[in-house]
Amino acid sequence: MGATRSKAVFQLSRVDSPSTRARALVFEDVRSVELLKRLDRIAPSDIPVLVTGETGTGKEIVARYVHDGSGRARGPFVAVNCGALSPTLMESELFGHEKGSFTGALSSKPGWFEVAHGGTLFLDEVGDLPLSAQVKLLRVLQEREVVRIGARRPIPIDVRVISATNAELETAVAQGRFREDLYYRLNVAHAPLLPLRERIGDILPLARHFLGLYAKRFGIDHVEFTKEAMAHLRAHPWPGNIRELENAVQRALAMATDGRVTEEDLRLRAHAENHGKGEAREPAQSGLEAALVALFEHPEPDLYRKIEDTVFRTAYAVSEGNHLGTARLLGISRNVVRARLMQQGLLGGAPRRLRVRIGFQDFGVLASLKNTRALDEALAAHGAEVEWIECATGMHVVDALSNGTMDLGVAGEAPPVFAQAARAPVVYLASEPPAPEGEAIVVHERSAMGNLADLRGKALAMSRGANVVYFVVRALEEAGLSWSDVDIRTLPPGDAYGAFVRREVDAWAIWNPLLTSLQREMPTRVLRDARGLAPNRAFYIGRRAFADAHADVVDAFLGQVGTVGGSAVRIDDETMESQQSIADTFHRLKFIARPVHVGDAVWRRAASAHSAGR
User: Fold this and answer.
1) pLDDT at 549 (0 to 100)
2) Which of 100, 272, 390, 459 sits between 20 and 30 A of 9, alpha carbons compared?
3) Which candidate, 521, 532, 355, 362, places its Cα nearest to that of 440?
4) 3-class SS letters over 20-71
5) What pLDDT does residue 299 have?
6) Other residues' Cβ atoms within 10 Å of the Cβ of residue 614
7) Residue 77: exposed, middle, or buried by beta-carbon count in 10 A (0-12, 13-18, 19+)?
8) pLDDT of residue 159
9) Position 314 pLDDT exceeds 70
């Protein structure tokens, strides 16, 4: 098989590919051929493959090549762009959901893992997955089963996972943005794709392929490149890789006459000057530094935000309003591009009202404000409209704030600490008083466990990043146990509930209102609550850039929170000391990779902060 599949031109057999790039593989460069030979050895097995390379280098092509060379070739090939999934619906899209499991879930829906059963699931831009989805993905890969949101019964799946990224996942792991255990699970076999400028031998075969493809589509019988055009193609650096090459050939063909594509038809000279050799970029770099120095000598209020906004608007203009082009230039996901466009009023080309995206859970003060629409009315007076985003846990809120798809929200005491350790731009706005009686470790009423010491060797369910993390640490220390003495099962609340009901775990660390609901549903016993161990505070948090730019909106938000809750206050010294103790404990136990100073993440209203609508 290897000798046949590694030939220079390989036509994929599937006909459901989304683009011309995914239907044909035309590699002749010696390094590309070596990669194909390596893929031939990898393809027949079921091991996960991580494909890396710049945007447009053909990562999906490689994934389909591996799929078609495997025993799963007759099964489905499902390609999912993780960067294009809404953060709030990410888990539903990947793992599925049951009817009524969340607002808007009007029917049951299988996730992409179920759709890919018996075949291959290609996770493109896997580095864009939020930490909450990473945890569940890791469990699916380990257990080879999925549990839909709102379901209690796991569904076995038989799927090979091929993932791809244009990001440095090792750096993301070091910064705490990507789980190390998931990285090693995905990176069993590595397929690095060089940029097109480093595999020059592929340029002309690809160009001829696209020329023939579009000539047939345009109804042109015969067309070819001139010698000058071919030399020009080989000399161009192709910063956009295969995608740029395809677009250039298609455009040139539309301009060509007499069956010949010339150097002038390609119109690459300006691109070569802008993106060519390193020495051509140095003056631009020097000019940028000079401009920044001039700004720093006469600093203006909110200078960093203005520079950041200018960079974004310029990239958007250079990309001629193309979302994907803007994302490629800045090295960010399209979700972040869309969020910034909405924030700056650029989406659709017309100014829009400020949209404030608020994360809430289906209980507490924010849920009440959503139901009464009091906050919507209060923020409307500031020229803003509210987009309510329901989240399963506080970590979902933190993840969304971190990637720029949410502005304000509420979470417990642990998620902001994890966010700060990962250098996420999340700030504390206000807190609620402690409620230690609202979290507990529970067991079934007839459990043989009588005290915390009996947890040794037992399975304890707990949600990632929830308040109960600190409480469990303190509870185990009180019982003379260490973290490693207990089989900690990190599960989302819905999965943890199912595991507890099925007695797959011996105990569950839980918080209100889930605690009260569970006690009503079944006979349980509290092994220990958090009184005397952990404060169990709720924090109102925000995205730093949003809070700095829209201080009056934040004030109106906190005003409504205080009116309904009656107890939300700005962060005081006692609260900061409590949070610092949690942060220090997490660092001591290596839950976070670096120490943090909580005070650095407390938001303070700047006198120069811009208001919404101005």
Assistant:
1) 87
2) 272
3) 532
4) HHHCEEECCCHHHHHHHHHHHHHCCCCCCEEEECCCCCCHHHHHHHHHHCCC
5) 66
6) 10
7) buried
8) 94
9) yes
Q: What six digits make up the tokens of 587?
A: 């660092």
Helix (H, G, I), strand (E, B) or coil at 332: coil
**Which pLDDT does position 345 carry in this prediction?**
66
Q: Give the H/E segment covering residue 526.
A: strand 524-529
pLDDT in tens, 508-542: 998 887 788 788 888 999 999 989 998 888 899 99
As given in the structure block, the two tokens for residue 420 are 């700060």
Spatial CA neighbour of 454 closest among 521, 518, 525: 525
The secondary structure of 547-602 as a DSSP string is HHH-HHHHHHHHHHHHHHHS--B---HHHHHHHHHHHHHHHHTTSSSS---GGGGB
Amino acid making up residue 504: E
Distances 281 to 245, 276, 277, 317 between C-alpha atoms, Å: 21, 8, 7, 20
| Cα separations in angstroms, 426 against 317, 399, 411, 600, 603 | 29, 10, 11, 10, 9
Query: Which of the two residues, 492 and 598, has the higher pLDDT score?
Result: 598
**In angstroms, how far is the first alpha carbon of the chain from the final one?**
65
CA-angle at 578, arms to 573 and 579, nearest 5°: 95
Structural contact between residues 183 and 42, judged by C-beta atoms closer than 8 angstroms: no
Q: Which pTM does this prediction carry? A: 0.46
